[in-house]
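ARCHIVE RECORD
Type: protein–small molecule complex
Small molecule: zinc ion
Source of inputs: curated submission
Record status: active
Notes field left blank by submitter.
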Amino acid sequence: MELIALPAFADNLIWMLHDGHQAFVVDPGAAAPVANALHERGLRLAAILVTHHHNDHVGGLAELAPLLHGPVYGPAHERMPVAVQPMSQGSRFELLGTQIEVIDVPGHTAGHIAYVVRAPAQAPWLFCGDTLFSGGCGRLFEGTPTQMLDSLDKLAALPGDTRVCCAHEYTLSNLRFARTVEPRNTALADYETHCKALRAEGAWTLPSTIATERAVNPFLRAREPDVVASALARGAPSQAATEVFATLREWKNTF
Ligand SMILES: [Zn+2]
Ligand SMILES: [Zn+2]
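STRUCTURE (tokenized, with ligand):
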């Protein structure tokens, strides 16, 4: 399977996985980038996967319907603009020879889901929408810090080589914040240098990997002493992971 990132709007990435003949896409907020990619490569659209209800993730669904030769998979507990196969924690299905498993990741929205896609002899792909970003995480529009931390902990427990396909290229701005939280983290400093070079060439920083995120992402590191110390200095009421996480999330909102 080959992964392609299709840019949309200011900073969305619509992910496409294809086998040379058939493709599926994740979170098509716009139809044109998907239609163009299918046409250019002579691919048939076999399915669409959706992580949550925000318009920059579902806005292209109606327009793609005539091109679609299979189901739309979407969150069981969110209102969708088209009929979907309802997915929730533990749902599994097969698509283009891959095995797909669904994880509930509430926090950014109440019914947000993520998809782990496994193909023989390839590292897994994680499509996590607006839950986990490289170096950051989504804003809490409909969930609590406890829910989001639990969701991120589930994603952090995936194999380290899992490729993290986030729905937005927010990496550099996330890393500026991460460096403020953890100025002594050398893996983070190296990763920021690497990502700046990629962006300077016009390349995406994504996908990242779970191993990288565990090493650099402060929202996955709420139990690390340096992150705890920064959160306490910022006013966290205790070093409990949820308090540290909530303090980081509030801090980032105004950073
Ligand atoms: Zn969103
Ligand atoms: Zn989004």
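CURATOR ANNOTATION: The two ends are 38 Å apart (CA to CA).
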